[in-house]
Amino acid sequence: MSxxxxxxxxAIARARWRKSEFVFWILVLACAFLFPSRYLxxxxxxxxxxxxxxxxxxxxxxxxxxxxHAAFFGVGAYSAGLLAxxxxxxxxxxxxxxxxxxxxxxxxxxxxxxxxxVDLTRLMVTLGIALLLEALGERFSNITGGTDGLQGIEMAxxxxxxxxxxxxxxxxxxxxxxxFLMFLLARRVVNSPFGxxxxxxxxxxxxxxxxxxxxxxxxxxxxxxxxxxxxIAGALFTQTxxxxxxxxxxxxxxxxxxxxxxxxxxxxLYGGLIGAVxxxxxxxxxxxxxxxxxxxxxxxxxxxxxxxxxxRLHRWAxxxxxxxxxxxxxxxxxxxxxxSEAP
Length: 343
Fold this sequence. Notes:
343 residues, mainly alpha, ABC transporter involved in vitamin B12 uptake, BtuC, 73% helix, 0% strand, disordered C terminus
């Protein structure tokens, strides 16, 4: 009986907000005032962060590997575009939710195929779903616009009060609010008993099943929720760019998402957010230096991360701050690395 209060207190401690989290979101908000000329690229980062968050929910917490997560992103993007283009739902927030629900339905219907296999099977099934949707989009070009995409999308003002502007300021704050709200929901989910059961399934599905966790139902639920998140990200893309083309279903979309999580890490919600920032910064930096070979340099960075290890890079990154603090304070550094992260 004494173990129950310990488990409860541990769960409460995990769910408690830390100072570093407040600092992170304050810095994100501060970027809007520090870089007023970069609203478009910052909005792109926010969309990618939400998209990466959706994949982290299934990869980092449930162990479901996907190479076709762009399927839900594309469905959300086209849903928002078609709703606005035909005047069905012109209010962006309502259209955003509706697009996410459409992607969620697709996620629920395809989840029964995904949970049946192991990692390699899941890779092929998820990739096949995305390729199938891309082919259907090209086949029914009278609806999707084919390779030209949807033309003439005009978004109504947000809540009837905030029109989208050409500089991307409204789109940035709109995307930031959506990302933060979706992050709060995801944080609540992963720190709930449902989220703890997902971790158990990822670590050992047979043991989780033996102690009474409904493995298949949990995987279907989180896969459906992740599809909803990806659909929201896709709808944000269409609403902030007034564009929806077949590129949203492309394999490169899902591959970039995997790169983001490799850079940022999986299994903690900030991994996708940090990875999105790093990926876009590397992309912009390398494309400025060598526009034709920026993918080569990003690939080289990934190889270094895999060979050296993220924990060792973290230790090396803290070496200089530790050295400076020791020299200035004449005592042991405040910034430390856990023993488990030592090389």
